[in-house]
Design a protein that fits this description.
Elements: H1 2-11, H2 14-17, E1 27-32, H3 34-38, H4 44-58, E2 64-70, E3 78-79, E4 81-82, E5 89-90, E6 106-109, H5 114-117, H6 121-129, E7 133-138, H7 142-145, H8 152-168, E8 171-174, H9 177-190, E9 199-202, H10 219-231, E10 234-238, H11 247-260, E11 267-271, H12 279-289, E12 296-299, H13 304-313, E13 316-319, H14 328-335, E14 340-343, H15 346-349, E15 356-359, H16 364-375, H17 388-399
Parallel strand pairs: 1-2, 1-6, 6-7, 7-8, 8-9, 10-11, 10-13, 11-12, 13-14, 14-15
Antiparallel strand pairs: 2-3, 4-5
Helix pairs in contact: 4-17, 10-13, 11-16
Amino acid sequence: MNWIAGLLERIIPSAVRRTDPLPAAPRRLLVDLSTIAQHDAGTGIQRVVRAIWLHLARVQLDGILVLPVAATAKRGYALATVDAANGGLSLPSADAPLIHAGPGDIFLGLDLAAHRLSRHQRQLARWRRAGASINIVIYDLLPLQHPHWFPHSTGRNFRKWIGVVGRLSDRTICISQQVAADFHAWLAASKVARRDAIAVTVMPLSGAVDATNPSCGIGEKGRAAIARAERARTILMVGTIEPRKGHDCVLDAMEYLWQTQPAEAPHVLIVGRPGWRTEAMQARLAALEARADHRLTWLSRASDELLAALYARAALVVMPSRGEGFGLPIVEALRQGRKVLARDLPVFRELARPGLFYFDDDRPAALADSILATLLEADPPIPVGEDWDDSVDSLLRALGLEQKKAPA
């Protein structure tokens, strides 16, 4: 990928890619990629982080040098490493100099790195005292609102992280109006002393999987899932297997259909890696997949390439999650012209457009009826959705930055 090599030469001059201090520049945009640089889990947030970073790295900004940064558990923020061949990210080398931000510099906490940000809050505090601004992307506040949905360590790290946001951030960039409202409520309830000094903005997300530097690979099981979706009416669920995602109510509805209307019941395709506190659900999925009538397929590992192929072939995408900060599978499916049936949550109402339907009763018979009724709705909608350029434009406006104007 020659464009990546050229991009690296522009955003990370050769002097920086050695061990020299960062170059002098009017201003620098320091983009935190700590989690994805250590491990790309391939979930929705990782697709968002990859897409936003890829687009930020390409834009030309007046007087701004865009740099990828990352911190480890033991060392503070330093320049992250970008692979010139494929654009992949990795953590800074052990001898990489720590960054010293100053007047006009902008820190953007793009990655969800709750366990890192709090460890290095003193570094961020020094930057802020020196004149840098601290800007944090907030994906949701669910670990605070519903701690029973998450491991104890997640809740503990999140509480530390949100405390740093309240003490040090100049601006938060929320991924939906619902998250912005939740953050305002947290500020008020927590009586954060400087809450009026924190700007709260919203950045919409795109469903363009192909523009996220997508992971590739289909595999034998993936090819079989594509073939089945091509010959049998299939409903698709996308999301890590975790308590809030609602796999349980969909499976209850489908088992009801398999018993009462087997000829009408669609095949079920679930894409999601195993998560926490769902051992019983994972066993249930494995048992259903092993049934002789093969009514269900579970892909615990799926590349972005495979996911896009499955979206394109699904008769319906079902989003029964009980809590989200946005609802990325909804916009990804609508962008490919798929119908979507989602739980009637306020955050999903923000995404309302042709092709998106809602249910408010998840009892087995009621949800089964909603699934069948949505399958019988009119033809799939025309593909629609924002591009990642729209997301980045919104982000840059929030940060007070402007792209260079093209020559007339």
